[in-house]
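Section 3.1: Structural characterization of target chains.
Under the original work plan, the team committed to producing a structural model for every single-chain target entering the pipeline before any wet-lab resources were allocated. The record below documents one such target. The sequence was received from the expression subgroup and is listed exactly as submitted; it comprises 490 residues.
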Amino acid sequence: MSAQWKKYVLWFAQEHVDFRQAEIASLLRLWNLPMRTAQDHKPENPFWIVELQNDESAKKLASRSMSLRCIFELWSHSKSFSAFHEQLSGFIQTNRSALDSLFSKDRSFKVTVETYNKHFSQAEKVAKMETMHYLPAEGPVKLNAPDVHYWYLEFWGLDPMDVPEQPLDIMFGKWVADGSRDTINELSLKKRKFIGNTSMDPQLSLLMANQALAKRGDVVFDPFVGSGSLLVAAAKFGAYVMGSDIDYMTVHGKSKPTRANQKVRACDESIYANLTQYGCEGQYLDVLISDFSRSIWNDCIQFDSIVTDPPYGIREATERVEFKTQRRATCLNEGVVHYPSTSPYQFDQLYRDLLNFSAQHLKMGGRLVCWFPLLRKDFSPEMVPQHKCLQLIANSEQPLTVYSARRLLTYEKVSDRSEDMLAYELSQVMVDSFRQRLMSTVLQNSGTRKERRLALRKVGVEEAIKRGKKLAADGKWKYELQQNDNTSDK
């Protein structure tokens, strides 16, 4: 390790584990920070031992991370107690002149003992502290807000049913910075002015904003804005936000309330009210009512990032305005006010429009961050939508039920060639309605006996049609050639 690099421990909250790698990579890109990881790096572990250039880099990384609990400078790391103490003692002696200010009499301190996957009593924790009697700290002990906070950590694996006899890692270091997890509570849906049926969890909203590299001065767009949860997260990081949606009632706060025991919505419930609640009203540009399948945007409009959660047809309908090629015969006259009906927005068409729109309206290097639903048992990387102008740089899974999940896809615009603007690809497996595939799977596995039998019969019919079979007069599914032979025999 060169002199300008220092070792740190990134301590993560053990939730949304599959998202932490993508978030940290995005924040490193946002701050233009270099970071080194070990060859045996395991993203699923709550403790990452990394190398950063200085404390300032560590503080920047922690200042926006929703996954990090804290970062501390690593002084000693080993798998055995004897080697750990030898290494810690050697580190202090080698760097004594640089550490003297931390150990001075006027600097209060505290040592916290923490274990993962193993419980220690308070007496056992005190005994661990006493083994580090060689720490030359001379200042007073202060349990609340000390000047210097030391951490002693033991990692006992991830499986509570298979705890090893000895810890897998023993670490000691000095606290540098906490993550930004307080923002999650600040944006809690429980206290938010305006929420809807599908308002996004604050932590996930903030993770999406981080992966979109949303920053002060950016313009962030959500084409399926709903109650504006994703706009709130992006605005919190200083971005200007705007959105659109086909649902007039939801966007204007006139839909049925979703809070328990709330019968009527307050007159001031709105997306703008949410931003005002969090002091971000200056970041609000506008929200428009429009059908995303028929773009209203000038070709020259560009966004820094597009962050969205498209409807899947489960809790919110996937709708588009019905396109009519001719006037109905029942229409009395051409001057009659016409309110167009809606039709289902097919799954493949929705994502085709989203990726094509992003290719057209993102700036070079801009990001699209969106959710993509799927059945867990069927997933393969080939199912993820592709586009020649967009490079997939992150793909994280959030399980929803036993059968279903959704993946947070992050794309970056890498090309603006006009011939590639419509170069969208989606696996044929995903073309069918997600809702139909999910309901069919649920009924096959957890419905009543009659529902399971009907669901399996429907699957059998669909498979027969795919193989080229047709229903014969005798009620059996046969290949067309076989049917013709039977007919000629008669």
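The longest helix spans residues 449-466.
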